[in-house]
Design brief:
alpha+beta; Arc Repressor Mutant, subunit A; Chorismate lyase; 6-stranded antiparallel β-sheet; 7 helices
Length: about 240
């Protein structure tokens, strides 16, 4: 393409249009890492100040996510509605007359990875709480819960007894829930998931990806895997009125 300096209009707006075109066309999908400012300067023939302003404005407008020391990424879409309630699995099981129990498989604090920093939409984190917990209904495993927790909001996550209290109850006490994102998919059970949920390998499971926010900060990133032949996901809600 010709240098942007050869086209009319403010240069930073042209850089923004260039980035938005790549996002809108699908070439740069959600969580895609953008070229560096240096590479964009070389490719577009504009100053670094122009590129910096364009990326800064796109970040403030919600199109990009900039993580210091990691890079600039296409921001994931924010949730528009919640079709699955955020509920305590222990309460769900008890409400239908079952008996809930849990086994903690893993509880630790881990160092941040690039993927986690992107998921938490922040740089500078020194670590995240990490847990892997198996939930049972009447001694039959029904859910494998993996959580990554913002240690700046919940610093003592890895010191709790999550066989005596659920992660849901503990997190509700520690940090208010102000926004939720849910993505549901069907997956085949891998060998470890099949072993823990007492399934055959490749048997269908439901995977619920959930992120929660406390005000402007991502509080948790979760993967909840359900045995497909023992669980269903759904909700009842009132849709927003249409004017």
């Amino acid at each position: 393409m010709p240098p942007l300096s050869d086209t009319a209009g403010p240069l930073y707006e042209k850089v923004k249009d260039y980035v938005l075109h790549h996002i809108g066309s699908g070439k740069w999908a959600s969580d895609h890492r953008l070229p560096s400012e240096h590479d964009l300067v070389a490719a577009l023939g504009v100053s670094r100040m122009t590129v910096h302003r364009a990326l800064r404005e796109l970040t403030s407008e919600g199109y990009l996510l900039r993580i210091q020391g990691v890079g600039t990424f296409v921001a994931p879409p924010k949730p528009q509605s919640t079709l699955i309630d955020v509920a305590n699995i222990a309460n769900e099981i008890t409400a239908r007359g079952g008996r809930h129990s849990a086994r903690v498989i893993l509880l630790e604090t881990i160092r941040p990875t690039a993927d986690l920093l992107v998921a938490f939409e922040a740089g500078g984190h020194k670590g995240f709480g990490h847990s892997l917990i198996l939930h049972f209904e009447n001694d039959v495993p029904v859910q494998l819960e993996e959580r990554f927790v913002n240690s700046e909001l919940v610093p003592d996550y890895d010191r709790q007894d999550f066989e005596a209290i659920t992660t849901f109850d503990y997190l509700q006490r520690c940090t208010p829930l102000t926004e939720v994102e849910h993505v549901i998919s069907a997956i085949p059970a891998d060998a470890e998931t099949a072993r823990l949920l007492m399934l055959q390998e490749a048997e269908p499971c439901l995977l619920l990806h959930r992120r929660t926010w406390t005000r402007s900060q991502v509080a948790t990133v979760n993967k909840l895997t359900y045995a497909g032949n023992r669980y269903s996901l759904g909700s009842r809600y009132s849709p927003a009125s249409v004017s």
